[in-house]
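Technical annex B. To support the medicinal chemistry partners, we prepared a structural model of the target in complex with MU-OXO-diiron, based solely on the information shown next.
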Amino acid sequence: MHITDDIRYVGVNDHEIDLFEGQYVVPNGMAYNSYVILDEKTAVMDTVSEHFTQPWLDNIKTELAGRAPDYLIVQHMEPDHSANIGAFMRAYPDARIVASDRAFAMMKNFYGTDYPQRRVVVGEGDTLTLGRHILTFISAAMVHWPEVTVTYDSFDKVLFSADAFGKFGALDVREDWACEARRYYIGIVGKYGVQVQALLKKAAGLAIEKICPLHGPVLTDDLSYYVGLYNTWSSYGVESDGIVIAYTSVYGNTKKAVELLAKRLQEKGCAKVTVNDLARCDMAEAVEDAFRYGKLVLATTTYNGDIFPFMRTFIESLVERNYQNRTVALLENGSWGPIAAKVMRGMFEKSKNIAFAETVVTVRSALSTQSDRQVEELAEELCRKE
Ligand code: FEO
């Protein structure tokens, strides 16, 4: 596949993968992207997952059409991109390997060598001239690993963006970009908003016509759309108006309270309402929703003097990703000593700019006249809040 006259796609699609990075379901598979730059000298950008050694080497061979690559550029050492460094270096014994010093340190840890005789260490602002293509290396530390470098090709105005601007899903499946890019971003990169903001600032100073990430499609048209979403996500801004209700229920009574709240909100018509049952939905999708919308209702049971485990996992997933700038409302259930609201509130104590709704719904075993009224009050308060 031609990205430009000189840049060719040599990545692979993975439809056999069970869980990406050991935890994310990827119903439409995954793409591991790799690129070849053809010039007086030739460079290969990153490798692919360990399961695709031969198809990837074959793709490179086809695009090089008899030439040998001069450089392998390693932007990111996570094994979905680095697993075939050894295979490449064996296949092309005259090639040199280009990476940051931190990437070389990781290379030795992962694969037992950092190629001391064949390596080129690059840092912020260093360049590599292939001919008319001059590559500039830009640190993207902690987007989302410390060794990450992105690479700018000033000739074709291409930014090779490593995991930034990536998404779940193989390239031979057509699907909405934002949906799976958001789930990927929030799940994998979401904690590092400050570092993504720093990268966006550096990228703003470059003339970019194409973004070539390590996952997902090459981005070409209307780059401001993708950059705008990345700016919203990495600044923890609200992308869409709406209320998310995330709940767990043991015998269905908390669920009935949630259904009543959703009904009241829908009757008022003040916002789109999304409901996630945390024991049954894809947790990454529920986390994505919490970051996408501005208001979140957490509903759970008191359990073993704490809260129900799926809810604990969910809130931990938010807090560790620096969840902030949101309105949070609490609904608890407890048959003899309800403390779920207090526990949930306490879990956000280090989070920035969380506004809790004044109304807390307490269900004692099952809905009652009193808790029905609290649900109505909460619906009114949520609709009133900006
Ligand atoms: Fe796609 Fe961070 O590896």
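Notes passed to the chemistry partners:
The longest strand covers residues 293-303.
Residues 48 and 81 are 4 Å apart (CA to CA).
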